[in-house]
């Protein structure tokens, strides 16, 4: 399956109950040649309305961090979520919703073949890195899994609620830039 076919099939997905309440599937955005993927938990209200990941206030903050380290969502990073449809009232996704959506993310990984994955927030980090990870204690630390470097950082929405943690998260993006320079071929 190629990238465009994957996207079209994902946009028509009806594998779980979230399809009943969504406005749009949030497939992800960025070049399919990106060596860096940023992965969040799931779309919120703004993302559901626009069909794009991280477009609200937290998305603006994320874009500021990306710009500071010479990254941009339409240039050299791919941004997605584990769950592609917004859970009602922004509740946590249910296990069956995770399970229904995970194959879409696996296919995105297979096609994009990132060298670095940044997990935005606790839920994404616990699903993609390991269940017992503590993002507040282990943020900015890279772990290699099957030839891909994974790092957790605080979710931009959490930073808006806790602005005192912004410098800590910014340090994670500086570490990301260093790792890109170390392992990526064409990001910069």
UniProtKB/TrEMBL annotation:
<comment type="similarity">
    <text>Belongs to the uracil-DNA glycosylase (UDG) superfamily. Type 4 (UDGa) family.</text>
</comment>
<dbReference type="Pfam" id="PF03167">
    <property type="entry name" value="UDG"/>
</dbReference>
<keyword id="KW-0479">Metal-binding</keyword>
<dbReference type="InterPro" id="IPR005122">
    <property type="entry name" value="Uracil-DNA_glycosylase-like"/>
</dbReference>
<dbReference type="GO" id="GO:0006281">
    <property type="term" value="P:DNA repair"/>
</dbReference>
<keyword id="KW-0004">4Fe-4S</keyword>
<dbReference type="GO" id="GO:0046872">
    <property type="term" value="F:metal ion binding"/>
</dbReference>
<keyword id="KW-0408">Iron</keyword>
<protein>
    <recommendedName>
        <fullName>Type-4 uracil-DNA glycosylase</fullName>
        <ecNumber>3.2.2.27</ecNumber>
    </recommendedName>
</protein>
<keyword id="KW-0234">DNA repair</keyword>
<dbReference type="InterPro" id="IPR005273">
    <property type="entry name" value="Ura-DNA_glyco_family4"/>
</dbReference>
<dbReference type="GO" id="GO:0051539">
    <property type="term" value="F:4 iron, 4 sulfur cluster binding"/>
</dbReference>
<keyword id="KW-0411">Iron-sulfur</keyword>
<keyword id="KW-0378">Hydrolase</keyword>
<keyword id="KW-0227">DNA damage</keyword>
<feature type="domain" description="Uracil-DNA glycosylase-like">
    <location>
        <begin position="27"/>
        <end position="174"/>
    </location>
</feature>
<dbReference type="InterPro" id="IPR036895">
    <property type="entry name" value="Uracil-DNA_glycosylase-like_sf"/>
</dbReference>
<dbReference type="InterPro" id="IPR051536">
    <property type="entry name" value="UDG_Type-4/5"/>
</dbReference>
<dbReference type="GO" id="GO:0004844">
    <property type="term" value="F:uracil DNA N-glycosylase activity"/>
</dbReference>
């Amino acid at each position: 399956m190629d990238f465009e076919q994957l996207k079209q099939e994902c946009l028509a997905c009806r594998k779980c109950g979230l399809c009943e309440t969504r406005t749009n599937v949030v497939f992800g955005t960025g070049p399919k040649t990106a060596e860096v993927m940023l992965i969040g938990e799931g779309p919120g209200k703004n993302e559901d309305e626009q069909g794009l990941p991280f477009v609200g206030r937290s998305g603006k903050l994320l874009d500021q961090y990306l710009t500071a380290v010479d990254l941009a969502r339409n240039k050299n990073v791919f941004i997605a979520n584990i769950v592609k449809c917004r859970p009602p009232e922004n509740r946590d996704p249910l296990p069956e919703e995770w399970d229904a959506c995970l194959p879409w993310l696996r296919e995105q990984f297979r096609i994009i073949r990132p060298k670095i994955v940044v997990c935005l927030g606790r839920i994404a980090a616990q699903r993609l890195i390991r269940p017992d990870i503590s993002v507040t204690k282990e943020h900015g630390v890279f772990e290699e899994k099957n030839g891909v470097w994974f790092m957790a950082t605080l979710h931009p929405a959490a930073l808006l609620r806790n602005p005192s943690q912004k410098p800590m998260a910014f340090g994670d993006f500086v570490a990301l830039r260093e790792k890109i320079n170390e392992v990526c071929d064409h990001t910069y």
